[in-house]
Amino acid sequence: MALAQPPEDLGPGRAVFMSKCKVCHGSTGEGNPAVARALKTTQPVLYAETVQGKSDADLKKIIAMGSGKMKPVAGMGDSDFGSVIAFVRTLKQP
Ligand code: HEC
Question: Which of 43, 68, 75, 79 has the most beta carbons within 10 angstroms of its beta carbon?
Fold first, then answer.
C-alpha cells in the first residue's frame, strides 16, 4: 500500500518563504525580533488565528501590497503567491 502523500507539494512554497519571508518572519513564522525592533513594530506570528483566519486572497494582497509596516514583497512570481500561502497554512505553533 502506498504511503499517504501530503495533499500538495510544499517544496516550492517553502523555498519562496525561506528566500522572501524568513528574514523578517523567521523560518517558523515566529518573527525575527531584530527586524521588529528596527521597524519599531511586531510581526504577528504567522500561525496565529488572526493570520490563519484571513482568506488566501487577503494573504495575497498583504504580500503584494504590504500591510502596516510590512512593505510589498518584491520579486514574487505569479505562481509564488499560491505556493507560499500554502506553506504559510502549514505553519503551526511549535
Ligand atoms: C522586510 C520584512 C518583512 C518581509 C520580507 C515580510 N514581512 Fe510580513 N510582516 C512584516 C511586518 C513588520 C509585519 C507587521 C506589519 C504591521 O502590522 O505593521 C508583517 C505582517 C505580515 C502578515 C500579517 C498582516 C496583517 O495585516 O495581519 C502576514 C500574513 C505576513 N506578514 C506575511 C508575509 C509573507 C508570506 C512574506 C513573504 C512572502 C512576508 N510577510 C515578508 C515584515 C515582513
Answer: 43
Pocket, ligand 1, Cβ cutoff 6 A: 20-21, 23-25, 35, 39, 41, 43-44, 46, 51, 59, 62-63, 67-71, 73, 84, 88
Residues 6+ away with beta carbon under 8 Å from 45 = 29, 30, 31, 51, 93
Average pLDDT over residues 19-25: 97
Q: How far is the CA of 1 from the centre of ligand 1 (A)?
A: 42
- First-to-last alpha carbon distance for the chain, in angstroms, is 31
Looking up cell 500538495 gives: 8
Give residue 93's pLDDT: 85
